[in-house]
Amino acid sequence: MEAGPAPNGSTGQKNMSPVDMLRIKQQMSNQCFEMAVQLNAGKNKRSCSTSEAERDLPDYVTELEEVKTNYFNSTLALHRMQMWHAIGEKLKQNDAEADALKAVSNRCMGMCSHIQQIQKESRDLQNEITDVQKKRLEMKRLTHEKMKEIEELMSKKEHPDIEKYKAVLEKGLANMEKYKKITIMTQNVLRGILLACKVHWLDDPKLRDLVMTLEEFPVLD
């Protein structure tokens, strides 16, 4: 029994487009990647114990989350690029939708410029407020220093005089107390002499004037 005619490989290759070849190549690459993943998973499953898996699980979870985040950010960036490319292509056209889109774009640009101006004014105002606060703190510090200097100056100016007058006053009071005691002793001596001698001091004007200066001096009959 004769075999049937072999398929013409050259004819099949001629009918295959480059896009089909790239698609087949991508499919083969994906299949190889899946086989490699399954093979590595089988190796890890055979060689990894439960304790090691539990120990390494947080690292794998963290790595998986990082991959998810990177994929999300890349997809978002790609979508933005596609959107801006589509908007740019649309703005090149001359129809009603392009005019409306241009109006919205101009309005957005104007609002962005206005926002930037407001932000600049806000920063300038904040800088002015900061400068005023710094000047206020500096004035407060200088005022405190001046008040301290005034207090020290007044203390240096008044303190010696007060101590001087206080010392003089204490010395005067001590002298007065001393002479008071001497005066009392003299009065007592004079009083004793007059009483002992029984002198009639009322008959003598000078003696009478002297005795009248004495306190509580008895009058003799």
Describe this entry's structure for a reader.
Among the domains are: 24-92; 161-212. The longest helix is centred in the middle third of the chain and has 102 residues, at 96-197. The protein is elongated, with a radius of gyration of 59 Å. The protein has five helices and no strands. It starts with 8 loop residues before the first helix and ends in a 9-residue tail after the last helix. It is mainly alpha-helical. 0% of the residues are buried.
Keywords:
CENP-H; CENP-H_C; coiled coil; kinetochore binding; 5 helices
In short:
The protein is mainly α.
Layout of strands and helices, then pairs:
Elements: H1 9-15, H2 18-47, H3 50-91, H4 96-197, H5 205-212
InterPro entries: CENP-H, CENP-H_C
GO molecular function, one term: kinetochore binding
Organism: Solea senegalensis
What's the total count of β strands? 0
* Relative strand content: under 5%
How confident is the prediction overall: mean pLDDT? 74
Cα shape: elongated
Report the uncertain regions.
1-14, 217-221
Number of helices, counting only DSSP H or I runs of 4 residues or more: 5
Order of helices and strands: HHHHH
Our Rg estimate from Cα atoms comes to 59 Å
| Range of helix content | over 70%
Question: What is the first-to-last residue Cα distance?
Answer: 192 Å
Please give the largest β-sheet.
Answer: none
Structural class label: mainly alpha
